[in-house]
Amino acid sequence: MASHLDLEEQEQIDELKHFWTKWGAALTWVLIAVLMAYSAWTGWQFWQRKQAAQSSILYETVERAVLSQDQALVTRALADMQDKFASATYTQHASLLGARFFSEHQALDAAEKNLVWVKDHAGDEGLMALARLRLSALSMEGQKWDQAREWLKKPFPKAFEPLSLDRLGDIDLQEKKMEDAKTHFQQAWSTMPERDEYRQLIEVKLASLGVDVRALDLEKKKEKKE
Q: Are 97 and 61 in contact (CB under 8 A)?
């Protein structure tokens, strides 16, 4: 009996040796790859948390500088954030805040610089779209109508389409292109959610151009029924 068990054990050992000879090296590399991937993932998580914590501190610095109207500090803090924490969400929001601050203080070049940075670095489509809309508004302030249109040229996320159409209508008005303005405002009004308060402003613009929004509303409801 003992001899039979010894033979079985020896067969199992031989099978294990054969298996390890054939697959041992491959399994070792797989194990190493898994351990390296896990180590990289944990390291990335730690780095992300560290980035978020450090960038949040600088974001608070930007907020305080904006409240105290310290333009020099806003500039330095934003430059530091963009240089060291470009991928952090705090940095993208701080850049939008800084751009608004600079715009309000007529530092339009600085405002544009920060909006372009958001457009080029934001990982969120909404932030990128918002930056492009604000860049278009800045160009309008400088009466650069072609440039204002250029910022709106690429497609927008669906939620921002009505706002981009409305902005195109504003540019049309400035260039005295009344029929184009009507078309863009009508498209903006038709695609904007009915409960959106901004829709009322578009209605005012359309009314000033002689467009009856009630007729548009009836037409829209008729299209839905069909």
A: no
Which residue did the predictor score with more confidence, 30 or 187? 187
Q: Are 17 and 10 in contact (CB under 8 A)?
A: no
Under DSSP, the state recorded for 158 is G
Helices marked H in the chain — which ranges? 2-67, 71-84, 89-104, 108-121, 125-141, 145-151, 161-174, 178-191, 198-208, 213-225
Give the whole-angstrom CA distance, residue 77 versus residue 81. 6
Please state, rounded to an integer, the average pLDDT across all residues of the chain: 81
Farthest CA pair distance, the chain: 105
d(CA 182, CA 40): 55
- Rounded Cα distance, 82 and 117, in Å: 8
- What are the tens digits of pLDDT across the range 146-172? 999 999 999 999 999 999 999 999 999
